[in-house]
Amino acid sequence: MRSGLTGLAALAVAIVLAGSAYHYGMFFDPIFYRWESILIVVCLFIVGADLAAHSRKADTRLRKSAPAAFYGLLAIALLYAVALIHRPASMLGSFDEALRWTAYTAFAITLYSWFSSSSDTAVRQHRLMWLSAAIQGSGAFVILGAIAGWMGWIAFPEIIMTTGDARLSAVGARLSGFMQYPNFLGAVAGAYLLFYLLLLIRGKAAVSSFIGAAAGVVPAVLVLLLTESRGAWLVTALAWVGGLLLLRGKERITWLIYSGWALISGGAAYRAVVHAGLRSGDAGVGSSKFVQEGATSQETLLLILIGVAAPAGFIVLRWMQARGREQLLSRIAWGCWLAGLFGMVMLLPSVIQGRLSGGFQTAGARGLFYKDAWLLMKEAPFFGRGGDTWRMLFTQVQTAPYVGNEVHSGYIEFALDLGLIGLLIAAAVLFVLLRGVWRSNPIGLLPISVLLLHAAVDFDMSFGYYWLLLLSWVVYYSGEPMGEVKRKRAIRVAPPLRQLRTALLVAAAASLTAAAVFSVRFDRAAQYREAAVSAARSAAAQTAALRAALGLNPYWTRIRLELAALASPPERAVLLAAGLRYEPQSVPLLWALGEAAAEQSDVHGAAAYWRLALHYDRYDRDKQTDAVVTMAQLADGMRAASRLADARLAAQTAIAFFEAYEAQKNNPGVNGRKFAVTAESQAAADQSRLLLKQLEPTSS
């Protein structure tokens, strides 16, 4: 009976991991709200049970409560909640991050309670095997699903990134997976590759389990290569070297030999299907048409043959070890690995080698992001500006025109959101969690380190799936027994800390309850917004749905802008101005307020709002052009209405906007983006200058 319940729990975990990956990696908060509420409510029952056990002083020697380190994740959520009271850059961004971290806490506590809370070593190890199966199963879904998209077997939006820019892809296509981001998919594939290798080396289970892990190695290598993510390649290689240093004796030999075979078979699979993605992805940049041609029958057959041969090779290697061939294998271990590396290099098409020898412009772009992030960080160095600080404010400090809604470093984003204090607290929580892994099973840090290292140079931490997967490995690898004598002794000295533990549980329950309420409200708001989109043909139904959504989530600027577009002019200004309470430096809100003022022929209001919007986002070429053109048109309208003072102000404002715009044109862009003055703005500025000259006699 208990084994069946554990199996159901493992199935639920696999569904959560696979589902979070499938829903774009849970990058978008409106999709994550419902999942957050479910995770939090499940955890509430667990915390409630722990609280009841502590209140009645029950014997906890058979079942342990989650360690305080897991509740430390809740401290990060509370830091984002505290940010709400000191004018954050975005109220919604801070709310969203607080809800995310509460959900991560709930997931970690739930995993520990289901799979690692038993004091019986045999029971705990049995449950951890189920957790391993859940991680493997969800990984197979993510990795094989990505390969299926590359081969054209399934259709999924942007599962392949196609580009003609050789700086971004050597082949012309990069595998993005369900997360729609090649670099993050590469990090996930690299982490799973090391996870599978560890299962092969240290697994003492049946042959069927060995075959299952062996079958996952080549798909992981293939996906890692197809992403063309140099950062993922590098951190995976570094973690692999870490494994070489941590392993000893027979395990090190096996590590080398299995890795060599993985390189050869993975390289062969890559060469067989490398060009299939160009026939399976989007028809072109910006196109929504999906090409269904996909892989050829020859490519499909080769991939299947390699997929069967690779596990067979691992089985043969295992058989050789079981037959006492360790001495032979130890002599050839390094040779096998070098042969595997050489074989993979030879199998790779020459075009992919360009990704290793050049095209490092994206690294230069990241350097510019980090430089601008430092400028932003200095404005609030200790406590930050709350959630979404970079996304809301980076245009105010950017030193060149670029597209950079993500800062491309999870740790820098922490520092921007929560300041150095928050970064140190988050680092301390992470350190305590990883120390548990190090004490129990140091080799378990290998797949975890791939994720942690890659997040330093990319925005992986913005994906909910990233944290759910990482915490799954933390719970799995920290579940090794510490020794029954020490554990019983720790339980006997626990009573003096019972009150503190109870207070912690009460605080956690209160935080979880509040987060559950907000996540449900925000999810309902997202549903109402979807209803508004579906009711696009009925303005009344659309307006009613958006009003309901705004009532449930008044912090969501997107809903406010959409509702304002349907409202009457007087109400529109009120709606938009109210949004500045939650995002005081929101360029979209300021711009919409300027448009509303211009529609009402309010020259002063339009000039003030647009001046502020352009000050906050001076490299937006479209807005710069629209501001100049609209103010020039407004000047003509004011002259026609004999409002000459307003006409003069509008013309002067148009010229001032244009001169500020023109001053930016010589600043070089990055990532191929150029910033140039448009012909429309030039013509509008000339028109305004002419109008001012015509108004001069009137003013004298």
TrEMBL record:
Annotated TM spans: 31-53, 65-86, 98-116, 128-156, 181-199, 206-225, 231-248, 255-273, 300-320, 332-352, 414-434, 441-457, 463-479, 500-520
Domain of life: Bacteria
Pfam assignment, any one: Wzy_C
Keyword Ligase appears in the UniProt entry: yes
Key word Ligase present: yes
GO molecular function, one term: ligase activity
Residue intervals of the O-antigen ligase-related domain: 216-426
Membrane topology recorded in Swiss-Prot or TrEMBL: Multi-pass membrane protein
Localization terms from the record: Membrane
Entry keywords, A to Z: Ligase, Membrane, Transmembrane, Transmembrane helix
PANTHER family: TEICHURONIC ACID BIOSYNTHESIS PROTEIN TUAE
The protein's name in its UniProt record: O-antigen ligase family protein
Organism annotation: Paenibacillus lignilyticus
